[in-house]
Amino acid sequence: MVRPLILLLAFALLAAAPATAQSEEDESFQNELSYGVNFNSNGGLIGGAFVRSSYYMSDRMYQFGGLEIVEVKHPKENREFSPLSGEAFVYGKQNYLFVVRPRYGRELVLFKKAPESGVQVNALAAVGPSLGLLVPYYIDYNYGGQGTSIRTEQYDPSKHLDRDYIMGSDNVFRGLGEMKLKPGVHLKAGLSFEYGRYRESIAGIEVGFVVERFASTPIIIPNASNKKTFTSVYLNLYYGSRE
């Protein structure tokens, strides 16, 4: 049910034709730059960050381009602590999945705010490629059992059989040189609630859905239910300025 609604909203916004003349109220407005943080149901405490540039098309329609970077986590990821070292790790995790999402979209003004106050409500939809970056997840594994033979390796369920011998995890930079690309596409649709000084600065929240599909399945946790298609709900907090 969610996907048809998203597709319908996306089609309506992307197919809308721009008007040729600006209204008197918006005649000084040319573009808008905003940025902020992302929270989503597939991410952690903070899902990622984004930047967006919007351009005037008509009194009720804007077009925008944006770039978002988020981490996508497997639903079975659970943080544990080593009984030997006390350090944290995610048992079973073999790869991080970071996604870079360039996109183009349209934004329709549903309720316009007054020039100096109030809240403006916009509906938006956007599409674009998804560049999935699969980065190896490294752990410190104690092969000796007494702390005498510790190796830092990408988690492998066929080698690292005893979770009690996992001493912890290394940082994400360890595996960047072995990163693999997983291409895909995504579609988002949502509502934004904007406040602040109309002609100078903006701030607000945006809520909505994202549907994303990769050409091949990114393996985050082996021997678990990995998938090509991801759906999530998101909340963006943003701030920006207009010229």
Report a brief summary of the structure.
With 243 residues, the protein is mostly beta strands.
Would you spell out the secondary-structure blueprint of this structure?
Elements: H1 2-14, E1 31-40, E2 48-56, E3 61-72, E4 79-81, E5 88-90, E6 95-111, E7 120-136, E8 138-142, E9 150-154, E10 166-169, E11 180-195, E12 201-214, E13 229-242
Antiparallel strand pairs: 1-2, 1-13, 2-3, 3-6, 4-5, 6-7, 7-11, 8-9, 8-10, 11-12, 12-13
Task: List the secondary-structure elements in sequence, H or E.
Answer: HEEEEEEEEEEEEE
Number of strands: 13
Strand order of the largest sheet: 1-2-3-6-7-11-12-13
> Over all CA atoms, what is the radius of gyration?
22 Å
Q: Treating each run of at least 4 consecutive H or I residues as one helix, how many helices?
A: 1
Overall geometry: elongated
User: What class, by secondary structure content?
Assistant: mainly beta
Q: Report the uncertain regions.
A: 4-28
How far apart are the termini? 39 Å
Overall pLDDT confidence:
86
Summarize the amount of helix as a percent range. Answer: under 10%
Strand content: over 45%
Summarize the main sheet.
Answer: 8 strands, antiparallel, barrel
Describe this structure in words.
Helices cover 5% and strands 53% of the residues. It is mainly beta and 243 residues long. The strands form three sheets. It has an eight-stranded antiparallel beta barrel with strand order 1-2-3-6-7-11-12-13. The protein contains one helix and 13 strands, in the order αβββββββββββββ.
